[in-house]
Structure formats: structure tokens, C-alpha cells
């Protein structure tokens, strides 16, 4: 399942990469021909998106490397790192250039515009290509949300796959940016004032900066070490608490170590009637049961502790601020 989803993510990124590369070249030519600041800002937008896709592909490739002695939990978080770098790229190579171009155009008040129909044709074609790429991301999100039994919005908020989320947001921003550029070119043609081109460029820059911030914040949380989704945590707790050999689940911690990969640490109070050998065999059985029921669990650590141990309780209080997890 994980390999299938990784293949879906790769296909989504490759489609976005091809679309953005073609669109970026067309926008650049149209911007140079028409003299439109908004078109040049959109060319920078596509350049940023193309760079982003390359970074996401790097993350996909490196995150699939197997665990080794230096990285015993694998390289899954490499995908989060490269997605964070992609967010920075969107801001630096797209947002900053668009804002600078907008300020320059508004300050100079340039009104010269040639062959506006070229800009309209390129923007229309770009909208179709970007829409195709965005629709691919939407369909993948819907399929994965349905498979996990959750809603579209909840899947987006809790997703551990930054590649699809990044493509979804950047292509969505690209569609909005194309509409802004179309408005800027059209108002420039109607009024003869290049200020509208500059305003469109500024809005495109602000849009890209907002998208970059949102993506960067999401990937920062994954890099720091976000817990698994509530459904998985609840399911694991219920499975352990309902087992006849366990008196109580003393503490339960999870962390995403990659896309569809979760690290589980559970402190359990086993029944006093069990011998040391019984506890060892029960731990092995619980490991098998949990992996069979929750395929996302990658590493499982089960620690026997007494329920009222003061040190464990103190750590729980320090972590959660209450006597519970």
C-alpha cells in the first residue's frame, strides 16, 4: 500500500513538473512580448513551482532509502525536509520576484502594452494545464481520504504526505494567480495604465508568500515530530487496554517518522499474575497484532511499568500537564 501511494505521489509531482515547465516558458515569452509585469510575475511563479517539483522528487527518492546504522528509523523524514525547502523556494524565487516586479511597475507607472492577445492566449492555455495538474492532486486526496475513512479537509490537515499537499496548494495558487494576471492585463488594456499590472504582480507575490508560509508551517510540524492521527492513537490504546494480560495503558506516545510510517512507544502495566516469560511472549504477540491491525506502525516499543510508578507519573504530568495521555 505504501509503495502504491508513493507511486501515486510521484505521478502527481511529475505531471505538475511537466505542466509548470511548459507554462513557465510560455509566460516568459508572453511577458517579454507584451511588456506585462503580471506576466513576468507569473513566469517567476511557474519557475518557483518547477523548482518545487524537482525538490519534491528529490524528497520522494531519498525518503525511500532503507534504514541503516546511522539512521535506524529510516529516511522517511527526508520527504518533509525537501518539502520545507520547496516552500522556501516558492517564497524566494516566486513571491519575492513578483513583489519586486509589482513595486517597480507601480512606481514607474509604465503604460506601454503590446499584443495583449498573446498574454490572453498563454493565460488560457496555462489555466487548462494547471487545472489538469490540480485536478490530479484533488483526485488523489479524495481517494486517500476515502481509504482512511475521513473527509477531504481533515485529510489535508492531518496528512503526512507533503508532496501531494504541496502540489494541491501550489497549483491552486497558480490558478488564482492566472486569474489575477488576466485581470491585470485586461485592466491595463482598458485603462492604459500599467499600475494595474503592478497591482496584479503584488497580489501574486502576496499569494505566493502566503502559500509558502502555510506549507512551511505544516512541514515544520512534521520535522519536529508530530504524533500520529487521533484514529490510530485511539485504536492502539483501545486494543492494548482491552487485552486480558494488561491492567492499564500507563503511557502512549507516537511520532510520524515518514509518510505512512509511525513510531509507537507504549508503557504498560501487565497483570501481576504473569511471569517474566509470559510478559515477553505477550509483548511479541502484541507486536504482531498491532502490525496486522495498523499497517502504518513501523517500529513498536512496549515497556512494562507499574501503574503508580512516581517517575513515570511525573514525566506524564510534565508532558501533558495532567495525569493522562
From TrEMBL:
Q: Read off the SUPFAM superfamilies from this record.
A: Cation efflux protein cytoplasmic domain-like (SSF160240), Cation efflux protein transmembrane domain-like (SSF161111)
Q: How does it sit in the membrane?
A: Multi-pass membrane protein
Keywords attached to this entry:
Membrane, Transmembrane, Transmembrane helix, Transport
Cite the Pfam families for this sequence. Cation_efflux (PF01545)
| Spans traversing the lipid bilayer | 12-33, 80-100, 120-139, 164-187, 199-216
In this chain the Cation efflux protein transmembrane domain maps to 13-223
Q: Where in the cell is it found?
A: Membrane
Supply the name of the protein: Cation diffusion facilitator family transporter
Which organism is this entry from?
Answer: Saccharopolyspora gregorii
Amino acid at each position: 500500500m505504501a509503495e502504491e501511494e508513493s507511486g501515486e505521489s510521484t505521478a502527481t509531482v511529475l505531471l505538475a513538473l511537466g505542466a509548470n515547465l511548459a507554462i513557465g516558458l510560455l509566460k516568459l515569452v508572453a511577458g517579454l512580448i507584451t511588456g506585462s509585469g503580471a506576466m513576468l510575475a507569473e513566469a517567476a511563479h511557474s519557475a518557483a513551482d518547477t523548482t518545487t517539483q524537482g525538490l519534491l522528487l528529490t524528497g520522494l527518492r531519498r525518503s525511500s532509502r532503507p534504514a541503516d546504522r546511522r539512521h535506524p528509523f529510516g529516511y522517511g523524514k527526508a520527504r518533509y525536509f525537501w518539502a520545507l525547502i520547496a516552500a522556501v523556494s516558492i517564497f524566494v524565487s516566486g513571491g519575492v520576484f513578483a513583489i519586486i516586479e509589482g513595486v517597480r511597475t507601480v512606481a514607474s507607472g509604465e503604460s506601454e502594452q503590446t499584443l495583449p492577445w498573446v498574454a490572453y492566449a498563454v493565460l488560457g492555455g496555462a489555466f487548462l494545464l494547471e487545472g489538469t495538474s490540480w485536478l490530479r492532486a484533488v483526485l488523489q486526496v479524495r481517494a486517500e481520504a476515502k481509504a482512511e475513512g475521513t473527509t477531504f479537509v481533515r485529510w489535508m490537515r492531518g496528512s503526512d504526505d507533503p508532496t501531494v499537499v504541496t502540489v494541491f496548494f501550489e497549483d491552486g495558487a497558480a490558478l488564482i494567480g492566472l486569474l489575477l494576471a488576466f485581470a491585470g492585463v485586461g485592466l491595463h488594456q482598458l485603462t492604459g495604465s500599467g499600475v494595474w499590472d503592478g497591482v496584479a504582480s503584488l497580489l501574486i507575490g502576496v499569494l505566493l508568500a502566503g502559500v509558502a508560509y502555510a506549507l512551511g508551517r505544516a512541514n515544520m510540524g512534521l520535522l519536529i515530530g508530530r504524533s500520529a492521527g487521533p484514529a490510530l492513537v485511539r485504536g492502539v490504546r483501545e486494543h492494548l487496554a482491552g487485552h486480558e494480560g494488561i491492567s492499564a495503558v500507563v503511557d502512549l506516545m507516537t511520532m510520524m517518522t515518514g509518510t505512512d510510517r509511525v513510531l509507537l512507544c507504549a508503557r504498560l502495566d501487565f497483570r501481576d499474575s504473569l511471569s517474566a516469560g509470559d510478559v515477553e511472549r505477550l509483548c511479541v504477540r502484541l507486536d504482531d497484532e498491532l502490525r496486522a491491525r495498523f499497517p502504518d506502525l513501523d517500529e513498536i516499543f512496549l515497556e512494562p511499568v507499574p501503574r503508580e510508578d512516581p517517575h513515570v507519573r511525573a514525566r506524564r504530568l510534565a508532558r501533558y500537564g495532567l495525569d493522562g495521555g
